[in-house]
Amino acid sequence: PADEELQFLLQMIDQGRAAVLLHPKLRSEVPPEVLQKARQSLRRRMTRLGPGVLVPGQCGNIVLPPETEDEPSEELLHWHRVGAFYLDRWTVTNQEYWHFVHSGGYEDLSLWDPKIAALVPDFVDSTGAPGPRFWRNGRFLPGTENLPVVGVNWYEALAYARWAGKQLPTGTEWEFAASCPVAVGPATLHQRRYPWGDAFRRDRACLWTPERRGPMEAQALENGPPGKGLFHLIGNVWQWTLDDFVPPELEPDSLPVLKAIRGGAFDTYFENQATAQFQSGQPPLERKHNIGFRCVVPAALVDQDAPEPACAEQGRVKV
């Protein structure tokens, strides 16, 4: 019946699945008023970033020389042109992840990477129920509903993102959000070391202190670039990204597959490991106490007239 269908669609929005309803193959079937609610929900939950240019791994003022057709012998400056995208304002919480678990996300194999489908039954909580490692009986512990979900591996984060109609951010998207590149001259880009500026401030990030025993609530500390409404972009919990992690000094073939994590966590001791540029890696099956995630969607999904997002172009120029 129409009223039951409407309630089902509204329930999807309440569960954090508004992006599913905006998918090009579905939105023609969804009532206009529901589409409007879906867009409003996404804009409350996510912030729009880009388009722009990012020089990965760099901070401060960066001079972009003109490109050349000659093969340069000097060090190369790599850049990415980033399209517009929406990024979750905060990391996925226990309450938000519970909707995924409760709706049967661990039983829906279409959400999971086929390569590890046989391992999904092993992704259980402390009592053997499907769910994050530190939950009990398929549910988060009392009083932790607004904390970031942790104890989920890269595949669990990816499956949730697919269920929500989203994706994990690429390293370029995450770093673009954290470094906030701004043109300060005709060929000069300024990228921040931290989302709030170039100097570390202990009051702006949930990192290690002698008293710290765990993460803060996901919306406890707004520390993204001004005006973007981003919470704990740096600190609180590390964040899974879509990319592989390859240390620059080693050959890719000499390493096991690792996935890049960004941002630092509540138990990160060194502030230089919690910058916009720093990244580390973890095995994709690791279910650690200090790794969570947030999601992205293309801006074109929310803003119908927006350009296609994500690294539409990349290149290199001589330094």
Describe what this molecule looks like in 3D:
20% of the residues lie in helices and 18% in strands. It has helices at 2-14, 18-21, 32-45, 94-102, 154-163, 171-179, 299-302; strands spanning 46-49, 52-54, 60-63, 76-82, 85-88, 182-185, 188-191, 238-244, 259-262, 279-282, 291-292, 296-298, 313-318. The strands form 4 sheets. It has a 4-stranded mixed β-sheet with strand order 10-9-8-11. The protein has a 3-stranded antiparallel β-sheet with strand order 1-5-12. A 3-stranded antiparallel β-sheet has the order 2-4-13, covered by helices on one side. The longest helix has 14 residues, at 32-45.
Strand content: 15-25%
Which strands sit side by side, in order, in the main sheet? 10-9-8-11
**Could you list the spans in which at least 5 consecutive residues all have pLDDT below 50?**
305-319
For the secondary structure, the number of strands is 13
Rg calc: 20 Å
SSE arrangement, N to C: HHHEEEEEHHHEEEEEEEHE
The chain-level mean pLDDT equals 90
Total number of helices = 7
Q: Which range best describes the helical content: under 10%, 10-25%, 25-40%, 40-55%, 55-70% or over 70%?
A: 10-25%
Based on helices, strands and strand pairing, what is the structural class? alpha+beta
Shape: globular
Main sheet makeup: 4 strands, mixed
Query: What is the straight-line distance between the termini?
Result: 64 Å
Quick summary:
This protein has helices at residues 2-14, 18-21, 32-45, 94-102, 154-163, 171-179, 299-302; strands at residues 46-49, 52-54, 60-63, 76-82, 85-88, 182-185, 188-191, 238-244, 259-262, 279-282, 291-292, 296-298, 313-318. It has 319 residues and is of the alpha+beta class.
